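Follow-up to my earlier ticket, as requested here are the two runs.
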Amino acid sequence: MEELLELKQLLLKGDLKGSLAIVEELEEMGRKSIIKTIRSYAVILLLHLIKQQAEKRTTRSWDVSIRNCVREIQRENKMRKAKGYYLNREELKEILEEAYLNAIDSASLEVAEGRYSPEELETLINREEIFDRALISIMNS
């Protein structure tokens, strides 16, 4: 990575201010990558929660997918060395809200064999209940 080489040069020169700026940039890049990964799993998690609620049923496949997504979100969110989390509950809720449009679009293709538009499907579900269930699963498992 270009940033690491630049950081090395700045450290060798003794430029701590410039080095810290590069470190902050690297931290932000890492955080964005984690958020992107969590958002991807959140779309799949919400998709299956929407399908469960809209169809008032579940399948083993949906249940496994939900569990896997929850575990992957938890894994991505956990800081390895600092023993904390990258994102708090509110930030996770924001990511779920960002992922929702993609999830409802995908769910509209699958629920009832694709007979509902995303807007029609939204009238069949309780969005907040789905977010709450997703957050509880992520925070408590």
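Run two:
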Amino acid sequence: MASRLNPYLSFGGDARQAMEFYKEVFGGTLKLNTYGEYGQKDTPDADKIMHAMLETSNGFTLMGADAPPGMELTPGSNFAVSVSGDDDAELRGYWEQLSAGGSVSVPFEKQMWGDVFGMCTDRFGIAWMVDVVQAQS
């Protein structure tokens, strides 16, 4: 899998509706995962979207999610740039450079879904998500 760079949108509870709308606009295949699927079954957020990915036949990729509880959303700050792939060394290099001189909101480490993932804001104020995708078994 080659690394990919794409926008990642954050929503305040309507990620499913938004991503379904974008699927109507752009076509393609939409995959949705809820917080309940990843260990939060008995919470008020169980049906909210933890991760959505729309991939189109003309090469567009759009990702999004409902913001986790406690994460503030304000207009203009509800997006990040996502870089993901399976080349650990390449992606760690991106992480190290992007986070240097910036601020880390999620440490770059193994997450509950199995990937190594981190979130940071670079020294220019741009939000980044870096994800090393683990092989599916």
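The only thing I checked on run two: The beta strands are 4-11, 29-34, 49-55, 61-66, 79-85, 103-110, 116-121, 127-132. Let me know what else you need.
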